[in-house]
Specification:
The chain is α/β, with parallel strands linked by helices. The chain contains 8 helices and 7 strands; from the N terminus they run H-H-H-H-E-H-E-H-E-E-H-E-H-E-E.
Length: about 220
């Protein structure tokens, strides 16, 4: 068994726990993506996590824990075309690359202000054949791109900064979906009156002994 495939049982078990049905090709892509992070991390410093097993749980499976909620939200939308998701402060592509692999019908943009991280995303898209994945090197507030249906982040900034810096990129009816650790009561209290938290969902990350939650936000009408 190759080093890459050594993690397949743990990944498959996590997918079963999360009730995510992925094809064998998608599982291969997830494992290949982790292998690329490990390889490029030596030069590009994509993550402080170096241990491959820790990387699987803290990055790959943690990002996968977003998918059940994301799929539930997508099912409620009538977009009339491809849905667009923007992952802000994406770093090495978490969770954006994982979303692009698991939801090939979505257009996913991973935005980062660090050029080498955006270059890594472009390389991932090329090597894994992800035509729906785009790496953008820019400060998010300076971007000039089509508006999106969902903006997500994972450890990018406070909820106030996250919503303030990205608001111009939301389509009508679009939402923010922020991945957080413990319930961020102080961050929620600091939001302006025209931003509404309409749902908070506690999530369990298989293999990770830590609190995680998803914060759903939208502009008030």
């Amino acid at each position: 068994m190759t080093d890459l495939q050594a993690f397949r049982p743990a990944l498959t078990q996590a997918l079963q726990t999360l009730q995510l049905n992925l094809s064998e090709q998608q599982i291969d892509q997830l494992l290949a993506y982790q292998a690329m992070i490990q390889k490029w991390n030596k030069v590009y410093n994509l993550t402080a996590v170096r241990d491959p097993q820790a990387m699987l749980v803290q990055h790959l499976i943690d990002s996968l824990s977003l998918l059940p909620a994301l799929r539930c939200h997508i099912a409620k939308l009538d977009a009339g075309g491809p849905l667009r998701l923007m992952d802000v402060g994406s770093g090495g592509g978490l969770p954006g690359v994982v979303v692009a692999i698991c939801q090939p019908e979505m257009e996913v943009s991973c935005v980062d202000a660090v050029a080498k991280k955006a270059s890594f995303i472009k390389q991932v898209a090329a090597e894994l054949g992800l035509r729906n994945l785009l790496g953008l090197h820019s400060r998010v507030e300076a971007l000039d791109v089509p508006r999106v249906d969902i903006i997500t982040s994972r450890a990018f900034a406070s909820l106030l900064d996250f919503t303030t810096l990205t608001r111009q990129h939301l389509k009508s009816g679009a939402i923010w979906l922020a991945m957080k650790g413990q319930h961020p009561a102080e961050e929620i209290a600091a939001l302006p009156s025209d931003v509404e938290v309409f749902h908070v969902e506690q999530i369990e990350v298989p293999g990770l002994d830590a609190q995680r939650c998803l914060i759903y936000l939208r502009p008030k009408a």
